Amino acid sequence: MCNNMPNIKILSLFSNQLEGLIPPNIWKCTHLEELALSFNNFSGNVSREIGRLRVLRELDLNANKLTGEIPTSITNASQLTLIYLSSNSFTGPVPDFGNLRQLQVLHLSENNLTGVESAYRELGFLSSLTNCRNLTFLDISNNPMMKGIHLASIGNFSTSVSSFSASNCSIRGIIPPEIGNLRNLEVFDLSKNQLTGFIPTTFPMGCKLKSLNLNGNKLAGSFPQSLSNCPSLQVLDIGNNRIQDTFPVWTGNLTDLRVLILRSNNFSGTISSHTSKASLPFPKLQVFDISRNAFIGSLPHGYIRNFKAMMDVQDNHRGDQGWFFFLFMDIH
Predict the structure, then answer these.
(1) Beta-carbon count within 10 A of 219 CB
(2) How far apart are CA 47 and CA 52, in angstroms?
(3) 36-90 pLDDT, tens per residue?
(4) In which element (H, E) is residue 315 found?
(5) What is the rounded distance in angstroms from the CA atom of residue 314 to the CA atom of residue 69?
(6) Which one, 127, 228, 304, 318, has the greatest CB density within 10 A?
(7) What is the predicted pLDDT for the residue at 321?
(8) Which pLDDT belongs to residue 275?
């Protein structure tokens, strides 16, 4: 291939039915800046020769049948800004991406990766990314063998990070309060792990968070009202934990909130009425799940009357997603 087109800069073969090994001649295309092979059936290992692509900026190998370890030579492509390796069968440690100073997007989800191969092993995978000052998007979710990952270094992440997803990675330990330092964070997903301790109370004024998903951990303590500092919240899911608190009336003031899931915790007491006269509660709420708690009394009629977003067919229908639902446990 590169013998005939030695100066090729963009090679896009995505969304076909190509199979077998990735053609070895591709690694000789040293002028490549973009390589897209996603949504095919390529299999086998990725050659260490990938390190020859020194000017490569975008690499997309998503949704193939690739196996083996991610070659450490990938870090020789120091101009990489986008790396998509999700939905394969990669195993073994994650290379140290710390010297990819231009890296902005890193997708590693839905593989069988186990950790990090670097001098930062004792600190875990996240420490190897603290030098990536342009990183905005990190998704390592659905790598259930990543038991060694630590969250302690999350406060050292670049403030440019806007989305961090690490669902179903067997992560233990606590959520560090330093997440409040990530001023541009919009999506934070640590669901389906083994986290303990408390939900941090350090969400600052002007917080940009839009989605917080901590479902399926072992978090205890109260539900931090500092989340009211995040006026753009649309999804708030802390279901299936051990939170002990009364109903968070303040969530009714989150005017963009569409999903509120508190199910299977230790919430108790009566559900107080919304106190603000300036606005009605939950104007855009579409999912309301407070089942399997210990609430008593009755649900204030003001809430039910204002669940208008659940009644708007055009707003609620989402094609293949079906209908949003309204679910809550009978309150005794």
Answers:
(1) 23
(2) 10
(3) 999 999 999 999 999 999 999 999 999 999 999 999 999 999 999 999 999 999 9
(4) helix 313-316
(5) 46
(6) 127
(7) 38
(8) 66
10, 33 contact by CB (below 8 A): yes
Question: Which amino acid, one-letter code, is at 54?
Answer: R
Domain end position, chosen among 163, 179, 206: 163
Picking from 58, 121, 64, the residue whose alpha carbon sits closest to that of residue 93 is 121
Cα separation, 208 vs 37, whole angstroms = 34
- Residue 268: phi, psi to the nearest 5? -150, 180
Residue 55, both tokens: 């000017």
State the residue range of the domain holding 151.
1-163
| 224 C-beta neighbours (distance < 10 Å), count | 17
pLDDT in tens, 278-303: 578 888 999 999 999 999 988 887 77
* CA 302 – CA 320 distance, rounded (Å): 31
Clarify whether residues 158 and 203 are in a common domain: no
Give the pLDDT confidence of 210-244 residue by residue, as tens digits. Answer: 999 999 999 999 999 999 999 999 999 999 999 99
Per the CB < 8 A criterion, the answer to whether 233 and 203 are in contact is no
Domain of 293: which CATH number?
3.80.10.10
Pairing state between β 34-36 and 294-296: unpaired
Number of separate domains in the chain: 2
Q: Within a domain: residue 187? A: no
